[in-house]
Amino acid sequence: MEFYVVVEIGKSEIRAISDSLITMENCETHKIDLELDHPALIDTTGYLLEGGKLIYYSDNALKIAKENKLQELSIACQKSIEYGFDYAHGDKVYHFSLDQEAQLNFSNVYQLMRDGLVESTTWTVQVDGEYSRLEVNQDMMKDLNLYILRHRTQNISKFRDTLSLQVQQAKDIATVESIRW
Description:
Blueprint: E1 2-8, E2 14-18, E3 27-33, E4 47-50, E5 53-56, H1 59-83, E6 85-89, E7 92-96, H2 100-114, E8 120-127, E9 130-137, H3 138-169, H4 173-178
Antiparallel strand pairs: 1-2, 1-3, 4-5, 6-7, 8-9
């Protein structure tokens, strides 16, 4: 039998099901076929409208989807940090990698420079996709450390303050799955 399903615009969570056409503010109505004994006609809890069909998701499925999404976003955050950052110096833009080895090297060299044991070092960078070596002095190292801090903070903030919050507030699996790095 034909029924009308009302969902919020841009969402899949069901607001109402009726055998007659109904409208609600900020919602859209979809016509679907359902059996007269379908459980959603009694209680829409856990049902979503996806691809023109009612899909049942238990709370546990939503919880698992959120956990998986947070893990995916955490990995994406780490990869984004490790990918590194671009640093303009003179008339060139240098790309610095920040994989774990590079982070350790930055920390060690910065400490040696702060202690006055090293005045400069040569660093492997990329310029226009090609590997190159760059002389890094104490002043540049201080500046690079600020770039590193900013780069890491921006990525962590994107993960923790924005995307994680969106995942936690999601009411359905479709919304969770739509969240991207």
